[in-house]
């Protein structure tokens, strides 16, 4: 959940670097801006304004960047994707002493835990706790949104999770500090896989299944003091966290307070007005409304605006099980006014129109081919010609997360576009807190907006292609995050086989990129915008950088002036 740091954004120049940003450069929309860089003061509270609750706080049931961002505060993983503004994250050790030791055949990875690691209740963290946390994510009947990239790499013998199948043979724990992973095939980027939340330790005696989201047991610098679903959450310091074991998190504030039901228009107004000097937001695009974009040029606001190009791309995905004809999907894609949709994101200031889901900064990139107009204009004549003699659906459904106005507005634009080729489009709001759960269910609409922020290792083509268009763990159907439900016997079969090939990340990346180009000729999805976020923060907030992977302020380093 990864893209080019060198992509140019045109028009509307970016905000000027703020004092203390460490930049000193003149206004440049192409460069990241960090507010109050280098701040080391401890104490205070950060108020996080959000328009909706987290999908889940259970690390074993999370495939969302917002949970991954706040998760840095209360859970740790074997390795970690460490952010630097404007750059793909770097994989570094977290609970583990290093990035792992691989066997000569590439089929075994071994990790050693650091000494002195504890849960919030003082109980030592062992390799068995990490093994159990991975085992939980195989219980797909319970955890519908569990990350699957790690699971797809491990030998599993059809394992269904600890509640039904007991012990998992794909992982060994020879002692309390050693954990050994057994792979189906070699995987060059395996250290990135164990940075995913699957490896956040879960104590077996505290596992309450779906209720675990209400109070996951902390292994990080903060723990949950109170949590009212849909309303608020407060994090306080975890006195069992040892900073000597954790160079990745600064843990500067004493507390984090989350407001989980603030309307986006209100978030935008409050941040622009600096009505709360300690406030930030995790909402996409910094919670700003398109109508507020011009205010970013005001000097008082510009000096409080963190900014950066993200590894995140928004797409419109087609349900290939309901829109089965590739020519119909292509016709719909050609009929789209993507330029008008870009305006709903706030124009070039908030995102660059893109022709591809992957980009030239990813290792092994191969040029992608599409008939979409690079300027985003619709090609109605070509669309209508494609539909001649076809069985064209009279009505389709577009689903969107109801907390974000621009997603509805994108649907309104699409509705107008499709009417011109004889298709009626129903706009169907979906509660934002359940949005991706719906996309994974039998209620998947015909067309749905979604976003993807690369993978834990944002430089790898595979970590974008495989989750979004790749096959299931057994290769027999579409994969878990593949909400387009794309499956082609030949292309998907080649992807499944490619998972087991040896080679450098560059060599394998070229093969993944080539297969994606082939898959995209049948238009399972339409790339829209590669995100550039401007996130206004309160005047007391420091070390505010826009995470390339998270798409919002990186909570692991933020602080407040007191």
UniProtKB/TrEMBL annotation:
Pfam families: SBP_bac_5 (PF00496). SUPFAM superfamilies: Periplasmic binding protein-like II (SSF53850). CDD domains: PBP2_clavulanate_OppA2 (cd08506). Transmembrane segments: none annotated. Residues 90-457 form the Solute-binding protein family domain. This is ABC transporter substrate-binding protein. It comes from Streptomyces cavernicola. The lineage of its organism: Bacteria, Bacillati, Actinomycetota, Actinomycetes, Kitasatosporales.
């Amino acid at each position: 959940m990864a893209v080019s740091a060198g992509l140019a954004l045109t028009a509307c120049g970016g905000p000027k670097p703020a004092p203390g940003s460490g930049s000193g450069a003149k206004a440049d929309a192409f460069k990241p801006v960090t507010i109050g860089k280098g701040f080391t003061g401890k104490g205070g509270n950060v108020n996080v304004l959000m328009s909706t609750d987290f999908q889940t706080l259970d690390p074993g049931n999370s495939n969302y960047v917002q949970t991954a961002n706040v998760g840095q505060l209360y859970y740790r993983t074997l390795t970690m994707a460490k952010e630097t503004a404007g750059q793909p994250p770097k994989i570094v050790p977290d609970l583990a002493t290093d990035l792992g030791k691989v066997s000569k055949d590439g089929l075994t990875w071994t990790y050693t835990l650091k000494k002195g690691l504890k849960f919030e209740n003082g109980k030592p963290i062992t390799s068995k706790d990490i093994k159990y946390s991975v085992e939980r994510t195989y219980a797909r009947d319970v955890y519908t949104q569990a990350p699957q990239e790690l699971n797809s790499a491990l030998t599993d013998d059809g394992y269904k999770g600890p509640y039904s199948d007991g012990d998992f043979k794909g992982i060994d724990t020879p002692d309390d500090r050693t954990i050994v992973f057994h792979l189906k095939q070699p995987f060059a980027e395996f250290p990135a896989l164990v940075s995913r939340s699957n490896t956040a330790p879960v104590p077996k005696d505290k596992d309450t299944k779906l209720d675990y989201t209400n109070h996951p047991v902390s292994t990080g610098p903060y723990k949950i003091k109170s949590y009212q679903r849909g309303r608020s959450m407060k994090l306080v310091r975890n006195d069992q966290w040892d900073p000597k074991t954790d160079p990745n998190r600064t843990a500067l504030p004493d507390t984090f307070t989350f407001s989980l039901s603030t309307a986006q228009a209100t978030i935008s107004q409050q941040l622009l007005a600096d009505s709360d000097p300690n406030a930030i937001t995790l909402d996409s695009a910094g919670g700003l409304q398109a109508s507020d974009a011009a205010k970013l040029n005001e000097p008082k606001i510009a000096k409080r605006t963190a900014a950066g190009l993200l590894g995140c791309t928004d797409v419109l995905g087609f349900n290939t099980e309901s829109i089965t004809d590739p020519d119909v999907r292509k016709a719909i894609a050609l009929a789209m006014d993507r330029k008008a949709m870009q305006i709903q994101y706030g124009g070039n200031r908030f995102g660059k129109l893109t022709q591809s889901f992957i980009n030239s900064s990813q290792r092994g990139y191969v040029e992608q081919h599409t008939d979409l107009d690079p300027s985003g204009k619709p090609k109605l004549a070509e669309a209508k010609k494609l539909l001649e003699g076809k069985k064209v659906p009279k009505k389709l459904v577009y689903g969107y997360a109801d907390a974000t106005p621009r997603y509805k507005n994108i649907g309104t634009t699409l509705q107008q576009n499709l009417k011109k080729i004889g298709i009626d489009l129903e706009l169907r709001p979906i509660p934002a807190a359940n949005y991706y759960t719906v996309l994974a269910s039998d209620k998947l609409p015909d067309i749905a907006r979604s976003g993807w922020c690369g993978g834990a290792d944002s430089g790898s083509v595979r970590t974008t292609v495989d989750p979004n268009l790749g096959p299931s763990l057994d290769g027999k159907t579409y994969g878990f995050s593949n909400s387009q439900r794309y499956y082609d016997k030949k292309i998907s079969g080649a992807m499944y086989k490619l998972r087991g090939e040896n080679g450098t990340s560059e060599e394998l990346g070229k093969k993944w990129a080539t297969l994606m180009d082939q898959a995209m000729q049948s238009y399972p999805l339409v790339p829209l915008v590669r995100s550039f976020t401007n996130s206004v923060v309160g005047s007391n907030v420091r070390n505010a950088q826009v995470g390339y992977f998270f798409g919002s302020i990186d909570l692991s380093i933020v602080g407040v002036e007191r």
